[in-house]
């Protein structure tokens, strides 16, 4: 009865990497809720979820993700660092080979010196003078095509940024099918196969498959699990971040964002431009333009303290989160002062790395399998917040699942 060996729900970081591994040997179908957009139009795929039922009472944390073929990787700013190596090893998961594969596939390397912008160079110089040790960010960018426009988070007008579309296109060339605009709702066990119940372009469509890999991302995977009768824990993290910044006398050109970073125990700081800084300064009576602004992002490893419900997300800062943000803000403020910023303003807290909503050791085992026998592979299974960009690890996890399946048959 079933047509497919593997149905993969979600075409983002982990789902696409798993599809690329399996499509040569198996009949694979990739289901994606969003549209098949061109990279230059990726900004149309933004989903801005809000964190609380009652913003006025709890304060609001905006949680960003993307919906479209390629998932949130279309909006990513191409940072490619290894995370969770130690934490996953505690569950017997060694990603060494898979990290290497992804790094090779995407030719991940630090930004060359001639592509570093004026803000980044100034922040690196002042941070070094203060005794910190900034590193150049490894990126998934073809630097021959990159125009350093600083708009990776909108897609890429120059086809320079590398995304999961690469794995999706490769999977299709090996025979995988893709259905965009298909929203999976629920997974049922039906004899020795699975039934994925969903909606395709407004009409109900149910698909049988021998196996299912659920990779709908940390905000949607728990909904599908709960619909399917698997209860998920209150374990949501988002890698909370704020951007602080202000006006300088300099006139900077556009540049690659997060081109350098300084890692600390439970947060990183990184040069970042936020449009919101201009508005915040204006509210204080200070007029500024994009070229005057210099900013630093403080991104923390937040506590796994939140929940995805059917209709809302609960996520608030814990006391520890506030302490970590304050520690990062204190260091970043010192650097910005040395860069010549007089009045420093801060954006509100945002999260762009939601995860932990179906963690390994609770919802899935170390083979990424649920109690119903299908797999989950995306940021939901991460055991704790990375406090650092997780894309490379999520792609490596997709490859790992693919390798495990290929090696077991
Ligand atoms: C603006 C921004 C910039 C970022 N930059 C970086 C960066 O530079 N480096 C980095 O490491 N990380 C970055 N991240 C984070 C990174 O992109 C995500 O952590 C990662 O893509 C998550 O991977 P995933 O596989 O869990 O889910 P996703 O990549 O989000 O993929 C999930 C997919 O499933 C689809 N889906 C959801 N529900 C359903 C359903 N019911 N049926 C079918 N399909 C469904 C979604 O539409 C989506 O396409 C960034 C995030 C944002 C928002």
TrEMBL record:
In the UniProt record, does the keyword Flavoprotein occur?
yes
List residues of the 4Fe-4S ferredoxin-type domain.
137-166
Keywords of this protein's UniProt record, alphabetized? Answer: FAD, Flavoprotein, Oxidoreductase
Which SUPFAM superfamilies does its entry note?
FAD/NAD(P)-binding domain
Q: Which GO terms describe its molecular function?
A: flavin adenine dinucleotide binding; oxidoreductase activity, acting on CH-OH group of donors
> Lipoprotein among the record's keywords?
no
Classification via InterPro entries: 4Fe4S_Fe-S-bd, FAD/NAD-bd_sf, GMC_OxRdtase_N
Similarity comment: family membership: Belongs to the GMC oxidoreductase family.
Q: What is the official name of this protein in its record?
A: Choline dehydrogenase
């Amino acid at each position: 009865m079933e047509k497919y060996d593997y149905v993969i729900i979600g075409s983002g970081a982990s789902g696409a990497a798993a599809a690329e591994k399996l499509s040569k040997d198996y009949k694979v179908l990739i289901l994606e809720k969003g549209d098949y957009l061109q990279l230059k139009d990726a900004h149309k795929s933004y989903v801005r979820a809000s964190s609380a039922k009652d913003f006025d009472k709890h304060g609001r944390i905006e949680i960003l993700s993307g919906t479209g073929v390629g998932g949130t990787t279309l909006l990513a700013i191409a940072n490619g660092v290894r995370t969770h190596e130690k934490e996953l090893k505690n569950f017997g998961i060694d990603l060494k080979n898979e990290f290497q594969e992804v790094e090779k596939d995407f030719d991940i390397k630090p930004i060359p010196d001639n592509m570093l912008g004026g803000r980044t160079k100034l922040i690196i110089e002042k941070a070094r003078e203060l005794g910190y040790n900034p590193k150049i960010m490894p990126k998934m960018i073809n630097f021959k095509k990159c125009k350093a426009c600083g708009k990776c988070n909108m897609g890429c007008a120059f086809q320079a940024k590398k995304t999961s579309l690469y794995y999706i296109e490769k999977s299709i060339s090996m025979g995988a099918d893709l259905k965009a605009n298909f929203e999976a709702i629920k997974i049922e066990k039906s004899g020795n196969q699975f039934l994925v119940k969903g909606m395709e372009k407004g009409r109900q469509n149910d698909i049988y498959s021998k196996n299912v890999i659920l990779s709908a991302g940390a905000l949607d995977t728990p909904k599908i699990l709960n619909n399917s009768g698997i209860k998920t824990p209150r374990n949501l993290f988002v890698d909370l971040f704020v951007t602080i910044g202000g006006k300088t006398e300099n006139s900077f050109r556009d540049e690659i964002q997060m081109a350098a970073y300084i890692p600390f125990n439970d947060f990183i700081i990184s040069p970042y431009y936020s449009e919101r800084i201009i508005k915040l300064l204006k509210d204080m009576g200070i007029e500024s333009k994009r070229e005057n602004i210099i900013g630093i992002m403080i991104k923390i490893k937040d506590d796994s303290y939140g929940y995805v419900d059917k209709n809302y997300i609960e996520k608030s800062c814990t006391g520890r989160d506030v302490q970590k943000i304050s520690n990062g803000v204190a260091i970043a403020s010192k650097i910005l002062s040395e860069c010549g910023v007089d009045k420093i303003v801060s954006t509100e807290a945002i999260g762009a790395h939601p995860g932990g909503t179906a963690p390994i050791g609770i919802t899935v085992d170390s083979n990424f399998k649920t109690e119903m026998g299908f797999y989950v592979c995306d940021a939901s299974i991460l055991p704790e917040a990375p406090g650092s960009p997780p894309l490379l690890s999520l792609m490596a996890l997709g490859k790992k699942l693919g390798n495990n399946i290929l090696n077991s048959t």
